[in-house]
Amino acid sequence: MRKVLSLFMVLVMIAAFASGCSQGNKSEETGKGTPEVTSAGEDTVEASTPTAAPAELKVITVGYMPNYASMCTVVAGIQMNYFEEQGLKVNLVEFADGPTIIAAMESGAVDIGYIGPGAHKLCIQGKAKIFAFSHYGNADAVIGSASKGVSKIEDLKGKKIAMASGTTSETILNLTLAKGGLTKEDVEILDMDASAIVTAMISRSVDACATWSPNTNSIKEELGSDAVTLTTNVDFTDISPSICSWIANPNYIDANADDILSFTKALYKAMDYRAQEANIDQVVEWVADQVALDVESVAAQKGDGDWETADELIAMINDGSLEKAFQAQQDNFITSGDVKEKVAVSDYVMFQNMLDAAK
């Protein structure tokens, strides 16, 4: 009888051990433990909640020019993670000028871009839409060479002048000639890209030039007292506001309206950051690193614009002054012959997007 009882107890222990192993293997296979249940039916161990995967950022390709005015806002937005907060990742691509950026948009190589005043004529012509104002610029100048006999505007008559057509270079040259009672027929214009303008002036292959910062700074540094600044944007604020803007191709905007709005929201935070005096030196360092220039050269460009805040921009929209500035800019293009027909400003400037981004 004892042998039978002993055999029975062994079998019971083996069965219990096998049952325990079976439950343990089941827990390992499912990847999470099985909670114990009390007699009241309550879990003594809570099951863990899976961590949500981070949302994937939407990539936006942005065209810029290698200067402080073009870079200060977008680089601040990148470094301060303002774009990431809006679900966007910005990839930067460098271009020589605004018209080239707009051409890249038409081919789909760029999504969004920054332009100076001169390229706004292409927006009026329907090549792009302005979805955000950047700032009023003061980066452009017409510079003469004293040794070539150019010390005042009137001296430009019959002289060789380097400029880049379709850009702010052409815009300020037209304004300067008109101020001096001259036309393009009175001078010899050599059309070239921005870098070639600097070379032409330094080598004294031309008598004068129309260009923008940092090229203006490079020319003055190389020529010294021989470089004579004839005009800057400040000389024409009453008739030709020097507006700089953020743009995109109309088709891209139609297909990505939410991204445009998100990008604008991030820009506003970056505008406020760049406008604070305490942050300027940091922004200068970020820009210098991006464009591979020394900090001193970039710092010299800090005065190339009026760095409005988001609140100041909204105030300009609400009081109508910004629309008037765009209209004055268009009127100047029509007077110069760069734009043939008058277009409603609201057709190419997205004031509502700017207002919505401030909400």
Question: For the CA atoms, what is the radius of gyration?
Answer: 32 Å
Query: Distance N terminus to C terminus?
Result: 89 Å
Beta-strand content bin? 15-25%
Q: What is the global morphology? A: globular
| Secondary-structure class | alpha/beta
- Total strands: 11
Low-confidence stretches: 1-53
Give the mean pLDDT. Answer: 87
CATH class annotation of the largest domain: Alpha Beta
Total helical segments: 15
* Tally of discrete structural domains: 2
Give the spatial strand order of the biggest sheet: 2-1-3-10-4-11
Helix content, binned percent:
40-55%
How is the main sheet built? Answer: 6 strands, mixed
| CATH 4th-level superfamily of the largest domain | Periplasmic binding protein-like II
The name of the CATH topology of the largest domain is D-Maltodextrin-Binding Protein, domain 2
Keywords for this structure?
D-Maltodextrin-Binding Protein, domain 2, 11 strands, disordered N terminus
